[in-house]
Amino acid sequence: MASNWRRTLGNARSFVNNSMGGLRGGSNLASWVVAGTLAYYLWIKPDQDLKREQQAKAAIASHDDPFRYVETRKPVPDPQVTGLIHGNNNNKDKSFTADD
């Protein structure tokens, strides 16, 4: 009984170690640091720089006309028009009058 859970734990540890490339100790940590640093400078930092640049351009553009309205959120669609609330069936070609 006791060896069964030990074997399971050992298999899980072996699987985790093998999935990380089979490296152990300091070399494993160093490889993760190198991979994380490369990922930061190749993907995360350029994306952050692009967002900052776009925000700076938007700030300069809004500085020209400070009273201009800038939409910052997407509009919420009307649930009856989109069909989420039943009873409309999106009949836009029919005109309803007060005598109907």
Automatic annotation (TrEMBL):
Residues 91-100 have a biased composition (Basic and acidic residues). It comes from the Eukaryota. Keywords: Membrane, Transmembrane, Transmembrane helix. The chain crosses the membrane at residues 25-44. Residues 71-100 are annotated as: Disordered. This is Transmembrane protein. It comes from Medicago truncatula (Barrel medic).
